[in-house]
Amino acid sequence: MITKTQSALILVDIQNDFCGGGSLAVPDGDAIVPLANQLQPHFQLVIATQDWHPQDHMSFASNHPGHQVGEVMVLNDLNQVLWPNHCVQDSHGAELHPALDITRINKIVFKGVDRTIDSYSAFFDNAHLRSTGLADYLKEHGIQDVYIMGLATDYCVKFSCIDAATLGFNTHVIIDACRGIDLAVGDIQKSIQEMEEHGVTVLKFQDVIAKDF
Ligand code: VGL
Ligand code: ZN
Prior knowledge:
Elements: E1 4-12, H1 33-39, E2 43-51, E3 72-75, E4 78-81, E5 107-111, H2 134-140, E6 145-151, H3 153-166, E7 170-179, H4 187-197, E8 201-203, H5 205-210
The chain binds pyrazine-2-carboxylic acid and zinc ion.
Zinc ion binds near residues 51, 53, 59, 86 and 87.
């Protein structure tokens, strides 16, 4: 077994609501689950994130009468896309995908718990006011390299990667182990470019499996 010492795998939001039949299903989202399972044994540390919203979360269109899913609103000076209700705390939709191997997960990071602000990144809320504690956890475990995959490429994966790179981790996105929303056509492609501009290395699943760290 090739163990990537000092490397952590971060599984972003592999939850029922982002997969087939979910309320915010990402096209082909389920396809990444077997890849997540195959990657996990190669890493020293495995982190999973869960979007974990209260029912009255301000990112839900349903909490803004007269407004529609997909609209952008300004909330506390930040642009906020309005989403269908999703990943409500303790609901089936918020659970990790049933086929995801959870036996190797060392830590779960819950995000988006404050009703007043969204949190796409695994590290900070969208205003960068509050940390989730993930960066400290990784540093305490001597992690220098992070490999990120999951849902959705153009939201939570992108912001997690950019924050990780900005925090100084050698950051890799396993791009074919991610799926995106593409609310506007081209968003996924743009998000890949943005990640690269922030110093994120774009890799494929096979590169990671084959790479001898
Ligand atoms: C996400 C939209 C809303 C994501 C979470 O996981 O990418 N997207 N909440
Ligand atoms: Zn959310």
